[in-house]
């Protein structure tokens, strides 16, 4: 087998490691490509290719994350990970850990860790690497890695909900939710949403964003009724499908261009949060991206035509950031 073929066999694992460390599809793909270049230029072949490549992509990802953190501190509005529709790496022995670590909630918890803690946690808790391999990957002693793992696990456990819905319950509830959305049944939606439900969008200053978000069942239902009905009227399409290993949906305009993704957090038999990603830069890996501003204007005209009310709560729509400002902030 050629070096390129050997590398391609391990590419899914390398991408999955990098994505969980970085929370970005594009940055993870770049990290994997850089790993290939370093491997291809290496004059010797490692004894364990998996260990060598995993260590290399981990070190690259740590370096990228350190610089990315500065940009994320200056990010416009809430920062969410880039949506991932499917994980290329599968391991039946660790399927639960792999699926849980993909959720938006878990990735946001990982953002609280230092780059080293995050890398150690991902390698140990998600991919079950041994501490000798982890120590080599992060260039620290085994004792230091064990301490990093303990701290990371403590932070992650403290932030996780105590009783999360299982997969079957999540999917059943999400199915009812999306059916009610398509049919415009507000009473059914209210029964599925938690009283303190939150709906927050990551626009990065490059797509419409309504103030800080919508909070509480009245605001969220008002938004869903006021904007989704016109969206469907002008040919928009909602495609329910898993996003980051949780129930979600991809929204496309009439030409099939992606404009938005949702992921749902389910807890206690209710939907607790809806995370939306509208930043076009975070959607490009999914195909052509639509013009969210043009879509919003068309939806607003359609809403006036059908007499839909404005949603309750904060409704100030953020205008596009000037191009020079976008470059400075991202």
Automatic annotation (TrEMBL):
The keyword Nucleotide-binding does not apply. GO terms for molecular function: DNA binding; sigma factor activity. Keywords: Sigma factor, Transcription, Transcription regulation. Residues 304-330 are annotated as: Disordered. The keyword Transcription regulation applies. Belongs to the sigma-70 factor family. ECF subfamily. Interacts transiently with the RNA polymerase catalytic core formed by RpoA, RpoB, RpoC and RpoZ (2 alpha, 1 beta, 1 beta' and 1 omega subunit) to form the RNA polymerase holoenzyme that can initiate transcription. PANTHER family: ECF RNA POLYMERASE SIGMA FACTOR SIGJ, SIGMA 19 FACTOR. This is RNA polymerase subunit sigma-24. It comes from Streptomyces yokosukanensis.
């Amino acid at each position: 087998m050629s070096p390129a073929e050997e590398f391609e066999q391990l590419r899914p694992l390398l991408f999955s490691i990098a994505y969980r460390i970085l929370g970005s599809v594009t940055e993870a793909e770049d990290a994997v490509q850089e790993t290939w270049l370093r491997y291809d230029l290496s004059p010797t072949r490692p004894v364990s290719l998996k260990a060598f490549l995993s260590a290399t992509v981990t070190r690259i990802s740590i370096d990228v994350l350190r610089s990315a953190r500065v940009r994320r501190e200056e990010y416009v509005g809430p920062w969410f990970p880039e949506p991932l529709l499917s994980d290329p790496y599968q391991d039946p022995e660790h399927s639960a850990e792999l699926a849980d670590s993909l959720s938006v909630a878990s990735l946001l918890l990982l953002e609280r860790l230092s780059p080293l803690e995050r890398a150690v946690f991902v390698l140990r808790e998600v991919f079950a690497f041994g501490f000798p391999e982890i120590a080599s990957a992060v260039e620290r002693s085994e004792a230091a890695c064990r301490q990093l793992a303990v701290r990371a696990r403590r932070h992650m456990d403290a932030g996780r909900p105590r009783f999360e819905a299982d997969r079957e319950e999540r999917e059943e509830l999400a199915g009812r939710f999306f059916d009610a959305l398509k049919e415009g049944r507000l009473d059914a939606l209210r029964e599925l949403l938690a009283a303190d439900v939150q709906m927050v969008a990551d626009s990065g200053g490059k797509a419409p964003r309504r103030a800080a978000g919508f909070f509480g069942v009245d605001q969220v239902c008002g938004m869903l009724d006021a904007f989704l009905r016109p969206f469907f009227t002008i040919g928009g399409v909602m495609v329910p499908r898993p996003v980051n290993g949780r129930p979600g949906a991809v929204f496309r305009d009439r030409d099939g261009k992606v404009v938005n993704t949702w992921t749902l957090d389910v807890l206690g038999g209710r939907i607790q949060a809806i995370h939306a990603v509208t930043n076009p830069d975070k959607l490009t890996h999914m195909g052509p991206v639509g013009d969210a501003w043009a879509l919003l204007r068309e939806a607003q005209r359609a809403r006036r035509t059908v007499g839909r009310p404005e949603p309750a709560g904060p409704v100030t729509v953020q205008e596009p950031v000037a191009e020079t400002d976008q470059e400075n902030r991202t």
